[in-house]
Write a structure and sequence with these properties.
The chain is an alpha/beta fold and 157 residues long. It has four helices and eight strands; from the N terminus they run ββαβαββαβαββ. A hairpin with a 2-residue loop joins strand 7 and strand 8. Helix 1 crosses helix 4. The chain starts with a strand and ends with a strand.
């Protein structure tokens, strides 16, 4: 995988910080913002909607960050986000793949898209990440720092 150029990037954190580990996407953005005040555009979303297809048309690279409730080998996974041409009867909470597909089909735009999933374990109504989610968040941030380039230097997160 090639290194990702920060200046051309849009990072979308998906989640809800009032539901424990569901806030991992936002927590990731908070850490990026603290350690890299000048960098990629950061967008906080509770869920993805059809309108988000237009939002991603101008970026070269999109990274969707979201919590994951299953097991992930390293506590996180980073993979290419391929277009998905179908979705459920409801458009409540669309997947990143559907947004990428809509972007391509409606706006003839095909940004490089990736999904960073971070494993969580607790989802009740309560602020703050679980201890395991905190560990997995740090692993994901370290991984991101090794893949991202900012002003031709490795990002130090």
């Amino acid at each position: 995988m090639k290194n990702l150029k920060i200046a051309e990037m849009l990072i979308i954190g998906i989640g809800n910080c009032s539901r424990r580990d569901d806030g991992l996407g936002w927590a990731f953005l908070d850490e990026i913002k603290k350690k890299m005040p000048v960098g990629p555009e950061l967008i906080y979303k509770y869920q993805l909607n059809i309108e988000d297809a237009e939002m991603i048309t101008e970026a070269d690279t999109i990274i969707f960050i979201d919590a994951f409730s299953g097991e992930l080998e390293n506590g996180f996974s980073f993979e290419e986000c391929l277009p998905v041409d179908s979705f459920e009867f409801t458009t409540h909470a669309l997947s990143p793949g559907v947004i990428v597909s809509l972007c391509k089909n409606l706006y003839d735009s095909e940004p490089n898209a990736y999904v960073l999933k971070i494993q969580g374990t607790e989802w009740e109504l309560k602020d703050g990440l679980s201890p395991l989610a905190e560990i997995n968040l740090q692993k994901a941030l370290e991984f991101f720092a090794t893949k991202a380039i900012y002003e031709r230097k490795q990002v130090q997160l």
